[in-house]
Description:
The chain is built from 7 helices and 4 strands. With 170 residues, the protein is mostly helical.
Amino acid sequence: MGPFSYAIVRAVPLHPRAYSNEQISMDLRQRPPRRWSESLGGLIWLPRLIDKVRAFQAGTLGAYAYPSALDRSFMRSFHLTPALIERLVRENSSEESLGRAVRALIPMTDEEIDHRTELFRRNYRLAFALLDRDDGYISGIGYPLPRFLQAPLWRWYQRWSSRKASATTI
């Protein structure tokens, strides 16, 4: 954020929720998925992806997309597929076992995984800022956006993220 930015970044959304290790279903019609920066097994985005998969499997995805362009880019970066992630989410009830299972299937060294995670963070920083705002992790001057800007900005973001996800090869 620049010197004239007045956003408040929160570690939790404005609408708090508790996470349990044994959380099986997720209702994204009631609350947002976890923040993109949370990590599991050393992978940012993975907890958010797990929340979206659980909501998808429960039929409670709401306005969220799965697999979104960012989901696909994340999975492609680590040689994962939606079918594989969905199976792992069904088979592993705890977050820790799920993180270990995903990490075990990634055919890379820890250094490669860390490098790709950092590239993912850097490549999508604008998208992450928009997600933080939409999910209620950021508030302050300018948030929420005026209604007349929401639809055009959302259309632009969808086009941008699709192009970015299809063009990004790590």
